[in-house]
Amino acid sequence: MAGAEQPQPPRGRAEGAEPEPGGGYEPVVPHWFYCRVTDGRERWVPFSSQDSERLEEAYGSGRAQAEVVVPTSGGRYDVRLRQRQRLAVYWEEEAAEVRRCTWFYKGDKDNKYIPYSEAFSEELEEAYRIAVTQDEWKKKLESPSREVIILHNPKLMVHYQPVASSDEWGSTPTEQGRPRTVKRGVENIAAEIPNGEPLQIDHLVFVVHGIGPACDIRFRSIVQCVNDFRNVSLSMLQAHFKKAQEQQQIGRVEFLPVNWHSSLHSTGVDVDLERITLPSINRLRHFINDTILDVFFYNSSTYCQTIVDTVASEMNRLYQLFLQRNPLFTGGVSIAGHSLGSLILFDLLTNQKAAPEQEEQSAEGSRTTSSNRGVEEVKEVLRKLELSEYCDLFEKEKMDRQALFLCVQENLKEMGIPLGPRMKLLNYISSQKEMQDQNAAAAPGHSKEQGAKAGSPSEQDLGSREHSREHSREHSREHSREHSRSCPYRDVGLGQVSANYPQLNYKPSIFFAFGSPIGMFLTVRGVKRIDPNYSLPTCKGFFNIFHPFDPVAYRIEPMIVPEVEFEPMLLPHHKGRKRMHLELKEGLSRMSLDLKNNLLGSLRVAWQSFTRSSLPALEPAPAEPALEAEPGAEKQPEPKAEEPAPAREEPPPINVGRLNGGNRIDYVLQEKPIESFNEYLFALQGHLCYWESEDTVLLVLKEIYQTQGITLDQPLPGSQ
Prior knowledge:
Helix content: 40-55%
Strand content: 5-15%
Strand order of the largest sheet: 14-13-15-16-17-19-18
Number of helices: 26
Structural class: alpha/beta
């Protein structure tokens, strides 16, 4: 029992909570509970030890009659003591009933203990006090709902439900029915009472959900899933940042959910969809309308504006409210998005405006990059014309493609270029200008102007014009392909839905994407490559985290470095090792590779020995030993034994650009052993697993605290 294990002197069993007959009476120690309703079922949940003590202190000070508000659950809920209500601070949620609990009875269905009302608990406590002090047991009490409680002795107290008789006359409650156990004090029931969360908040993270109102396989809301994520983070802090906690260097990270689905579907679009939805397969159609259509809504300019406005305004509202409730907060802010939520955040971040000094630095870097790219294009032209020896000369003159096309013979002569190369360059410039003129002639406006001047042409003119237009289109396509090859980088904002993207009131430190389709959407929008020098205007960090079987997730790094094939970073297990089945799989693959090499080596040696034995019988030549020396050198087993060694060497570092400050971006989770049996069966679960993934949470905490100079107690193997 977690609550009994905590050293709390007032609640110890040895203090007479259940005294022997004739012993002294000790008042019961109350604990505060709140009622959580899930799917129509009530469940009473204890407050943490810290919160219960605060509530009891406010109650005992006589302030219960006044309008006293006590913050609980790390400041995410307020308890109004007078109304006995628990209210959510940052999101909309129904008020929950709060009770000061001392006496409990066991329920029928799930064997959970249910607290009596405060008034009836006082009656039970008074009867118990009299029974203990006067040693008079067998006390019988009747509850307001006509239920009977009998106090046989301090260790045996039972609760009987009334059983109505079959006659029409009123019947008094009897002791029939199945008796229920009655307990006094929270220390005598199996209630897990948490200690509470650290008061110090080091960092704030906003979490944006994906499509639909449900966020996991159990159809829970974003609030419930983020609660799980936060609870896992608290356990990871205790397991991997224990030294920093003991030295009071860190407190905790606060995670707040951002809900945009309810705002979108409150615009009346559901009513419009209902009118056009077919009546067949009703549940499936409603599920599609409520979830999958969110993707199409985001690609609509009307509803995209609603979504980005909701997400940005909600994050700004939560940020201001958080600062009001935590005026001493000096930490940073990060954002995380799951599925479509990550794409929404990415589009928001790409449209943020940097500070003036950052814009100036960025513009200067962009100009430098553009200038360097122009010089590289000229070098490519020179290589194509077999004039590579003049690359240094053009680079010295800072000659880009545009400047090259402005050159005439005198300019090239002044640069000291001989006549032959000069004529090659002039011919290239002339041909490129002719191609541009032909493309301009093929433009629609130009064709209309020519048609207006020419009047009504003959059929032959139409045919020749059609031929000319087709020729121009071919030249245009060729020029477009050449331009695509020479200018491979395109703006990541290309193809975004036309919307007015709001500005955030803060600069996020890190952007975490869970199971994200960002790479797919960028590709569909026409972005083939991301400039390695590109970074988000106001956010320095970007991590793309995904499960290997997630059908919605896509990589980012191949869009930055398409010419190099490399695997994503494998997230280390939170216990500091690879999962056993992955180690076994690697070991077996390595063993099979060694066996294959050894088998091939043995076959090669056998074949060489067979061919050598037959050669002397055919033609004994004096040069035979010299020829035998070469195969003999090949069959040495020592180099073969060392062949697998290069595969075990650490791969060289890969430059994946500035999107994550030069660090790796793509991180893949390790699948569980049961998931490796059938990846299709666990595909959906792979997309919804991030909320309870210790490995994901640990990476988030590690990167957040690294910005503060705080590291893990023990570095995990394979981590960056």
